[in-house]
Amino acid sequence: MVNKGIITKINANTVTVKLYKSSSCSHCSCCSETNKMGSDFEFKVNQNVELGDLVTLEISEKDVVKAAFIAYIFPPILMILGYIVADHLGFSEMQSIFGSFLGLGVGFIFLAIYDRFFAKKTIDEEIKIISVEKYDPNACTNLAESCEDFF
């Protein structure tokens, strides 16, 4: 998966990149330019980059699928397992439903722990900058205006 963004902040070897929306709506001219930008994304780099540079980031498809599984599939699996375990232990249907929500809660707690302690390290290892286009202040007269070459 490839995405582009603009470096908005540099702190030692950590950069903050404002990503472009990569969906099909990002190519539409119906919304304003500010809506075409996605969220801020922070990670470590080992390349020489400057504020305002346009960078192209890449993450392997395998890593995207793994992240989607952890975020979207794992909690519902724990929800189903919570129901099955409660049912096999002989609880009533209402208690088994409560067990399913307990399993879902455990899944969300797992996500929070994973995000806090493992995801940042994983992101820094999996994100690669594949190209850097240096910022040219003469390319645009006003950064709020549309600039096809830079933005």
Automatic annotation (TrEMBL):
Q: Entry's InterPro entries? A: SigmaE_reg_RseC_MucC (IPR007359)
Coiled-coil boundaries:
none
- Entry keyword set: Kinase, Membrane, Transferase, Transmembrane, Transmembrane helix
Select a single GO molecular function from the record's annotations and give it: kinase activity
List membrane-spanning regions: 67-85, 97-114
Under the heading Pfam families, the entry gives: RseC_MucC
Output this protein's name: Histidine kinase
State the organism's lineage: Bacteria, Fusobacteriati, Fusobacteriota, Fusobacteriia, Fusobacteriales
